[in-house]
Amino acid sequence: MRVRWIPLLVLIGWQHGLATCDETPSDEYLSHRQLLRAKLFDPSKYDVNQRPNNGSSSPTNVSLHPLLGNTTTFMNLEDGWLSLSMVTCNNWYDTALEWDPDDYGGLESISTFPSEIWYPDIEIVNTSPDDYTTQPITVYLEHDGEIWFCQPVTAKIPCSMDLTDYPFDSQVCRIRFALLAYGDEEVRLGGEGIMSHSVTNQSSEWQVTFLDTSHGTLLNKTSLDMAIGMKRRGTHHRCTTTLPWVASVILVLLGFWMPANSNRRLTLACINLLLIMLMPQRITPLLETSTAVPKIALFLGNAMVDPKYVRRTVRRTVTTTRV
User: Fold this and answer.
1) Which residue, 226, 202, 209, is CA-closest to 171?
2) Where in the sequence is the signal peptide annotated (predicted)?
3) Which of 49, 85, 273, 279 is the right S-S partner for 154, CB 3.0 to 4.6 Å?
């Protein structure tokens, strides 16, 4: 199977007004194109509701390619929900839409509307239909019967988050695509996800680290599972989480090292207690979506109850580092 990514990207750009052409197609080209369309989409010979059987009893193979890269406009993970917009491309063959380019002035490919052909209605099944929207655009047909159907997709996917290592945590969100209208004996779903390095800059807080695709089974139907690995950018929480946490540790240690009869010891302890009490206010909203309690929350909680815990933790860390 040849992948024609350049014509596809040009087609998508043309649909969104990113590319223009000032040249007017010749009358001969339009004539060949109209004749070809009349032949391919004749209602008496082509049924848009009938899947391509390609002259055999074998199922129709459909390849799904979610594209994460230059075409991705948004991706963010917040409150246990992954919000993203991307482009998904479906590819399959239909021998009923083949033609000889020599019979049509060397015309090797055309574009048409999704309503004029059969196409697989692939859905994201692990989210609500209200959180999943598509925008169908032009279908790309090759003379050998190969079809590419690309469309922008906007989705909001639930994602279980483990914030144990917050703010240096990594998360894995999964998206499941499936074709529910047909069984495996009629249409079989395959394909893989494609990620460009530019997708790592689409979110200010998260960096995409990997994209894996695998095939599963849902209600005796083949599904395509896409796993997106994301790592939180710790630099974004340096002033709001990391530095206050380090400051609270230093203040606790200073309280132990100051003389017992020092008048500033009580003042230092009050300031540190106030700091420790304010920091959990930022972490509390995270606990609603986390499957585990963050280590920093456990540390601050123990520090409020037993300040000796801080000294033992720091001493253990220093000893381990020396060894």
Assistant:
1) 209
2) 1-21
3) 85
Count CA atoms closer than 13 A to 297's CA, side-chain side.
17
Q: What residues does 161 pair with on adjacent strands?
A: 290
DSSP 8-state symbol, 129 = G
Query: Which residue is associated with the tokens 């929350």?
Result: 297
Q: For residue 203, with 0-12 CB atoms within 10 Å meaning exposed, 13-18 middle and 19 or more buried, which class applies? A: buried
- Determine the distance from the C-alpha atom of residue 317 to the mean position of all C-alpha atoms in its chain, rounded to a whole number: 38
Buried b / exposed e over 214-230, threshold 16 CB at 10 Å, is eeeeeeebbbbbbebeb
Q: What is the largest CA-CA distance in the chain?
A: 101
Describe the strand order of the beta sheet including 170-178 as a list of residue ranges: 123-124, 170-178, 221-232, 206-218
Query: Which residue bears the tokens 């779903």?
Result: 189
84 vs 94: CA distance, rounded Å = 31
Sorted by where each begins, the domain ranges of the chain are 5-232, 237-322
Report the distance separating Cα 270 and Cα 133, nearest Å. 53
CA distances from 215 to 69, 222, 266, 280 (A): 22, 7, 62, 41
What region does 170 belong to: left with phi over 0, alpha with psi -120 to 50, or beta?
Answer: beta
pLDDT at 16 over 50: no
**pLDDT tens-digit map of 166-213:** 888 999 999 999 988 888 888 889 888 777 655 555 567 888 888 898
Pick among 3.40.1080.10, 2.70.170.10, 3.30.565.10, 3.90.230.10: CATH of 5-232 = 2.70.170.10
Rounded to two decimals, the pTM is 0.74
Residues 6+ apart with CB under 8 A from 198: 69, 70, 72
